[in-house]
Design goal:
Layout: E1 7-11, H1 16-27, E2 31-36, H2 39-49, E3 52-55, H3 61-75, E4 80-83, E5 94-95, E6 98-99, H4 102-127, E7 140-145, H5 149-152, H6 158-178, E8 183-190, H7 196-199, H8 203-211, H9 222-234, E9 242-245
Parallel strand pairs: 1-2, 1-4, 2-3, 4-7, 7-8, 8-9
Antiparallel strand pairs: 5-6
Helix pairs in contact: 1-2, 1-9, 3-4, 4-6
Organism: Variibacter gotjawalensis
Family: Belongs to the short-chain dehydrogenases/reductases (SDR) family.
GO molecular function: 3-oxoacyl-[acyl-carrier-protein] reductase (NADPH) activity
């Protein structure tokens, strides 16, 4: 699918992976709507790429529906959805203060899993009614963001790992169900990427993390993630799969 002239939505687009993905989609000619809870972040990215920035809580049906409606009014119904919104506060199941509060576990799952599914269902419903763009009958593509923690979850990542594992497990059944509409569903499982959160660590800590990667022995770049997104969008035969983008790292227990 050629993104040129097509409407796209990127969640978590105010920074990091989402912001870089929004930039590359816009560069390829897509009409990009940037969603994030951080209004300042989405406004900045939207201004930079010539798109629109919308404050959106992906865990809320009402908030997501309203933001999608505004994006649709500006660009038409989205055919491309990139779900980058996510959180990952580490906490042990049983810590010094006792068991992890259930609300803390739920908060991570709500954003990473419920938020991803919420956007998927709403955008797919709109895209399913559009005319196909090619002879294959393609109407849209969704790229969700899992994590290597879905497979190599570390101590303290029970909430994050299980939420991302669920996103990975969602990929195939969603792809199979939405195939009837010509909508593909893929997921990327990034490893250690140089996002704003990691850039906040001291330089020695960043280098130490990078040396854990077999090759190349460094942190991944958001631009590499975005390049993979762009390939998925354009490569019609990629569907129903989770791609690890991790330099072949396998995370240690801690």
């Amino acid at each position: 699918m050629d993104p040129k002239g097509l409407a796209a939505i990127v969640t978590g687009g105010g920074s990091g992976l989402g912001a870089e993905t929004a930039r590359q989609l816009a560069k390829a000619g897509a009409k990009v709507a940037v969603f994030d809870l951080n209004q300042e972040g989405v406004d900045a990215v939207a201004k930079e790429i010539g798109g629109i920035g919308l404050k959106c809580d992906v865990t809320s049906s009402d908030s997501a529906t309203a933001a999608i409606a505004k994006a649709k009014e500006a660009h038409g119904a989205a055919r491309i959805l990139i779900n980058c919104a996510g959180v990952g506060t580490p906490k042990r199941i049983v810590g010094r203060d006792g068991p992890i509060p259930l609300a803390d576990f739920e908060a991570v799952v709500r954003v990473n899993l419920f938020g991803t599914f919420n956007m998927l269902r709403l955008v797919a419903a709109d895209a399913s009614k559009l005319d196909p763009v090619d002879a294959d009958g393609a109407r849209g593509v969704v790229v969700n963001v899992a994590s290597v923690a879905a497979f190599d979850g570390q101590i303290g990542q029970a909430a994050y790992g299980s939420s991302k594992g669920a996103v990975a497990a969602l990929t195939l059944p969603a792809a199979r169900e939405l195939a009837q509409f010509g909508i593909r569903v893929m997921a990327i499982a990034p490893g250690i990427i140089s996002t704003p959160m990691l850039k906040g660590l001291p330089e020695p800590a960043q280098k130490s993390l990078g040396t854990q990667v077999p090759f190349p022995a460094r942190l991944g770049e958001p631009s590499e993630f975005a390049s993979l997104v762009m390939h998925i969008v354009s490569n019609q035969y990629l569907n129903g799969e989770v791609i690890r983008m991790d330099g072949s790292i396998r995370m240690a227990p801690k």
